[in-house]
Amino acid sequence: MGQTPSTNRANDPNGGLSITLTKADVYNLFYTRCLQVLKPSELAFVRFVIDENDKTTISKADLKTKLSFGKGISLELWNELMDDVLFLMMKGLGKFPFLMDDKEASEYLTIQEFVIAFVFMSGRYNKVLSQDFDFLKLWFASLSESRIKQVVDDKGDVALEVPLLLPFEESDEISLRAKKVDWKNAPFCSLKDIDSDSLQLDAKSFVETNTMLLIASSTQLQKRGSMGAQFISRLKQWNEFEVYATSILRFIDVNLSASKLNEESILFDQFSKGVLDLLPNFYQNSLQRLSTELFTSSTLVNDEAHSSELLQKGIQFKPTKLVSVATLAYISSVLKGIGSDLQVTTENAVKLYAGSESGFSIRSLETKIFKWQAPTFLIVSGKRIKQKTMETNRRYQNFDEAYPRYFLKQENHLRPWQNDNDRITYCVVIKEPWQSSNKKNFGDTSTVILSMTPRADCYKSIHSDVTKGKSIYFNNQGMGLGFGNLQPLNKNGHQRYYPGDVSLTIEANLEFAVFRHLVQSKNNATNFFKPSTQVQLANENFEDRFTITDLEVWGIGSMKELDEQRKQWEWEEKQANARQSVNVRSMGEERAFLEMAGLVGNHGSYNR
What PROSITE patterns does this protein map onto (predicted)? Predict the structure, then answer.
């Protein structure tokens, strides 16, 4: 393989073993090590992808066919994803550990590139490289424009000092030598030779990739073969997932415009800071789901009829105006990213209240949600309040008068990144059961406010021995709902809200709402939530005032909780029917006595 038979201790600062190898030798050893950490099912998948007539390369066309999740399923969108995202990503990942040695664009993956890329996507690299390996940097670099444009002029014969765990012997097979290399401490595996400042990714590719990964994350673990069918069905909901992928983009850089994706790009420094704050493991988890669960299952899906049958069986969740599979995938990804133990899926989410169906009434809301004894999430959406509404709508003016103003009336309170036509959506995830709280708040420190659109963000509860996370009120006496507020005042015709510096307030008619974020105020408000997780906004004052168009509350429960709740509802319904039956019977007996007294009946004066 080009290495010298003797090992060298002098050049290793730690006094360990090392050997001089060419880049080509190192690459082949790493490829061999990658093969060794794959599971049998994953090796079977690799064999499935390899062309029997050409076992050295895989064409882009063949890869599309092999990863089509079943014979007969053909989606133009999936083909575009393969061209613009997956193939490019795998080509980049497959160059490791020499990412910058890319010479030119190619329509083929070598078998080495495919295997190495699969090991990184599946998370198996953890068995080879150090625990602090920067996967996000590798992933970003694999898609980065700068990596593609950079050319390194060498033929793979550059000499490298390679650390070893055990010395090489002349009789060693390559499989044994691959295990003897100390990959965890190899300098060329640290990515330090890649200049982070030069890495940038166009916004369009970022949104496409995030959309695909959100779809992958939404696909539930289930019988192999079923997952591919579900993935395909959710690809058809691309636009819904793309909304949240764009919100994630604007978390990375709030000033980016969703309408100018082709003209925008993000830097690695922006990406790494943003992702670590909101979605630290999203990319690893979603790529792992895509590769180990979805790709390997494609070997088992052999006909369109089977896929169609699985799709029909999987249709259980009924989306609403506000909540779709994409919504649940986004909420669940953020909750997982911030360390919450709650997971929201199509299997454990139950619609309790939808304003568009039950009416926008605080009483209707109370009736629908107060019986649910498990966690919930409230989601509210609307359009930013127009100047005309401010000037002419008396109901808004009454709300505005009761809500203490921070920005002056004549002041333009919109920030450069806020637009008049924004659709604003917030979500509040609540663990404690709802309760009427006209005098004191309820809740705990697990309550979190999520910004859904037009940008992603997260506002976590403050852990305080004083407030104890009691950040929520449900006031059915004319003051609505508050998250992050003190109890409102409603006395002798005088109404007054006491919003926290980070808070969401919904007025009693469920018509208007205000999200407030103040970090430079001097009002000494009691605060329940931390400022924005987004670096650009963490120290900025802003408000989102909007007219509510939709408001929904959904329950979150395990199958056990759902079953118990269903039994409780059935019991309450039986009791209500029984009471109604008793009332009817007793009413008949009373009527008989009234008829005897001549008070009702054909001749009674009270006859109707």
Answer: TLDC (PS51886)
List beta partners, residue 556: 349
The pair of three-digit structure tokens given for residue 74, joined into one six-digit string: 């053909």
Question: How many domains does the chain contain in total?
Answer: 3
Give yes or no: residues 485 and 553 share one domain: yes
Shared-domain flag, residues 379 and 443? yes
| Helix orientation angle between 135-143 and 203-218, rounded to the nearest 10 degrees | 120
Q: Is residue 184 predicted with pLDDT exceeding 90? A: yes
Give domain status of residue 306, yes or no: no
Question: Stretch 316-330: mean pLDDT, rounded?
Answer: 93
Higher per-residue pLDDT: 413 or 223 = 413
Map residue 267 onto helix, strand or coil: strand
Q: Find, among 472, 483, 482, 485, the residue nearest to 443 by Cα.
A: 472
Mean pLDDT of 117-140: 95
**pTM summary value:** 0.86
> Residue 586 is part of which domain span?
563-595
Is residue 528 domain-shared with residue 581, that is, in the same domain?
no
Instruction: Identify whether residues 153 and 44 lie together within a single domain.
Output: yes
Residue with tokens 């920030």: 415
To 10 degrees, what angle do helices 203-218 and 238-252 make? 120
The CA-CA-CA angle for residues 319, 322, 323, to 5°, reads 45
Instruction: Please check whether residues 551 and 570 belong to one and the same domain.
Output: no
Kindly report whether the peptide bond that precedes residue 531 is cis, defined as omega within 30 degrees of 0. Answer: no
Which among 577, 605, 555 has a CA at the least distance from the CA of 432?
Answer: 555
Both tokens assigned to 157: 């014969």
Quote the CA–CA distance of 122 and 38 in Å, as a whole number: 9
Q: In whole angstroms, what is the distance from residue 236 CA to residue 30 CA?
A: 38
My answer on whether 589 and 488 are in the same domain is no
